[in-house]
Design brief:
The structure is a single chain. The chain has 161 residues and is an alpha+beta fold. Helices cover 31% and strands 34% of the residues. It has a five-stranded antiparallel beta sheet with strand order 1-2-3-6-7. α1 packs across α2.
């Protein structure tokens, strides 16, 4: 009888560890995003939001982009340089190039989606200092873990050469 109770407690405890791990992963990703986000007028007030179905980027000018965990086929983290600006992007790509990015208006803390989905990826912009402490690799690992915990399967998109 004691063994049965012990086994049940271990099984129940493992389930709660998973839930904490998911929340901890979300918090870590948000914390790193807030620290490293590209700090210009368009991006400085952006923030990430996670719900049970998708990753959402709330943009400072009242709109949002989001992707369902199950629709993420790949993630690509890459540096960019435009004129005197440089940093990193994290791009989330839809399965098979489908147009799966939910976009819309963010008003009074509510998401108001557009009727049609027009894009097959969306990107998050980060500052150049994101390359410190092997952060791109760590973020890749955290994002893949979060997607997997939410029932999705994604890969890291790499350049061939």
């Amino acid at each position: 009888m004691r063994r049965i109770v012990f086994v049940l407690l271990v099984i129940l405890n493992c389930g709660s560890l998973n839930a904490q791990s998911k929340r901890e992963t979300e918090l870590w990703i948000s914390e790193k995003y807030n620290y490293y986000k590209y700090n210009n007028r368009l991006h400085k007030n952006n923030f990430l939001r996670f719900d049970s179905e998708k990753i959402i980027l709330i943009k400072s000018y009242g709109s949002y982009s989001g992707i369902s965990y199950q629709n993420v086929e790949s993630i690509k983290i890459s540096p960019f340089k435009v004129d005197d600006r440089e940093g990193f992007t994290i791009s989330f790509y839809c399965n098979s190039g489908n147009k799966c990015i939910e976009e819309g208006e963010y008003k009074n803390q509510h998401l108001i989606p557009e009727e049609r989905k027009l894009n097959n990826y969306f990107s998050i912009y980060l500052d150049k200092k994101f390359e410190e402490d092997d952060m791109p690799k760590r973020m890749e690992k955290a994002l893949l873990h979060l997607i997997k915990l939410n029932g999705g399967e994604a890969i890291i998109k790499k350049e061939a050469f």
